[in-house]
Amino acid sequence: MREAKHLTAAGHRVLAAAGELFYNRGITAVGVDLIAERSGVTKRTLYNQFGSKDHLVATYLEERDQRWRSLVRTTVDTCDSPVEAVTAPFDALCTWSETNTRGCAFINALAELPNPSHPAHGVASNQKLWLLNLFKELATAELVKADETSGSLGS
User: Fold this and answer.
1) pTM across the whole model
2) N or C, fewer C-beta in 10 Å, the chain?
3) What is the DSSP code (8-state) at residue 98?
4) Residue-level pLDDT at 103
């Protein structure tokens, strides 16, 4: 993740408006004029807060990733067993999808921004890698638990 910059109230409004627009309309379909209009700021304020549309997109995805990871971790942490934990990210996805009906913002971003040098591309790719590693970690924990249990049954 990039170094977090302190956002002003206007910066938070820009991020909220951009997030809604990027998710619902697509990143490449939304221009900074519309984001500035929706957030009630000037384009100068938008650029002062984010530097560029590319960095605004990356910040939008970083913020979304933080919320998603928090939901997944909370859901995993409430599980009573490693077996439940393996499927907990899918439970989190069901909860998330109740208000996010246009699919995965990270997959959508990767489809719209295929150039690996785009700042948002790395954010989206890292989110997918994090999820893959989480599933590996949870599955490994279940295998270790199953192995410990089967070893104690033979004693």
Assistant:
1) 0.87
2) C
3) T
4) 93
